[in-house]
# Entry
Amino acid sequence: MLGRPGFSTALALSALSLSFLCARQARAQPRAPDVEWERTFGGPCTEWATAVREADDGGFVAAGMTFVADDPLAVDLYLVKTDANGSLLWERTFGGPWIDQALDMERTSDGGFIVTGVTGGGQLCGADCVDSVWDVYLLRVDSEGREIWQRTFGGEGADAGRAVRETRDGGYIVAGLTNSFGGGFADVYLLRVDAEGALEWERTFGGDGHDRAFAVTETGDGGYIVAGRTAPRVGPDDVLVLRTDRSGNFVWQRTFGGPRYDLAYAVARTGRDEYVITGMSDRFDESGVLGVDQNVFLLKINGSGDLLWERTYLRPLLQTGHSLTETADGGWMIAASSSDGFMPRTYILKTDAEGGVIWETTLPGPGPNWSRSGGQTRDGGYIFAGRAELPEPRPRCTPFDLYLVKLGPEPGASTTFLRGDTDRDDRVELSDAVSILASLFLGTDAISCDDAADADDDGVVEINDAIYLLTYLFRGGRAPAPPFPGPGVDPTADRLGC
# Structure
């Protein structure tokens, strides 16, 4: 019979068990959040989404396109609004007798939406948008999807709006491509309009080959960073990044890439004058091993265009990063597509602030699917939009429906807020300073988050916080303390909360 282990043996076994447990915990990776719901929307033919944004009421609005009946030459711009649980609230279509297609959308400061894309043409605007005669289409709607105004811009060739953002002064910046103007086969097209859609200026950038913009963001000094692709008339593409001043005048241009194809589809500004970009790369990684086909990349540059770091995520499938969001913890969420060449799927990649992978997941969906847009929601979860292929055949139509999928918060996620955003509408504006004053001097409950109202992060909500916000908004003063300009957790310990 074996005797009971002595103390020294038991201690050794306990230490071994503890070290094994610690090793397992060290190797454990945070898991992706669970799918809360997924929905498809559409009619008897083909629909898909290219953009999604959270609405002020916690619901979601997606923008894309819908075929009119089964006519392959008649396509309308398509807007869908759901509640927070994905139930349909309304849907709207806009367009004329030809093709009208949404390629990007942004929520506006009044709770409405600004949409850009194309109108005209004889076929859908795909990766190039230069095979038909297009005009840039710009549509402004209110929170219920009712048209406020619409505008078109362009010349006699192909002109497309691929990205739109509201500027701090209430106007809009649109980036895309043109071969109506400029000197190349296609040039970057940058347009600035006022709050009513009146053109203030337009600029083109490029050489004698192919240059296109797919993304734009405003800089801290009121200028713009544009990201896309550049290539000679014959040859591979490089990532193109250019900076302009507030009037659209050229400041600098940078290219990034290897011997094959590299394209940028999304750009985001960090809290400082630094910018993170994602897209698709078909080049060598740091180890010198070529990716199987195409892979998601993430790179960061400073305000002068200098490369700070770069990551390429080598995976065995075809993968492209389509949209990019800074998350509440300071990391990055990339909405991507993944395919073996036959079966596309939505691929989500979550990284830390330096591009290190935290988790990744591929969504099965109701069938083959991909997402072109995504973002973090106020509850700490994520929303994605694209298209899903359905099993039921549709005569003369590809059986795609607009696809929305909502992921829950990450396990253990902290309460997040945006400094200065007292009413928690994801913006810092005049009404936030007014809310602080109303709470202090009228006794109202206008402040939804005390931590957000503490603009200078001194642990007290006082009149100085309202003055701080007003100086930042109207006199070019210091920005609110972190977390800003994106949501996050409070970096300092105090008694305030949300």
User: Anything to note?
Assistant: The chain has two domains: 35-407, 416-498. The first strand starts at residue 35 and ends at 41. Residues 1-28, 284-292 have pLDDT under 50 and may be disordered.
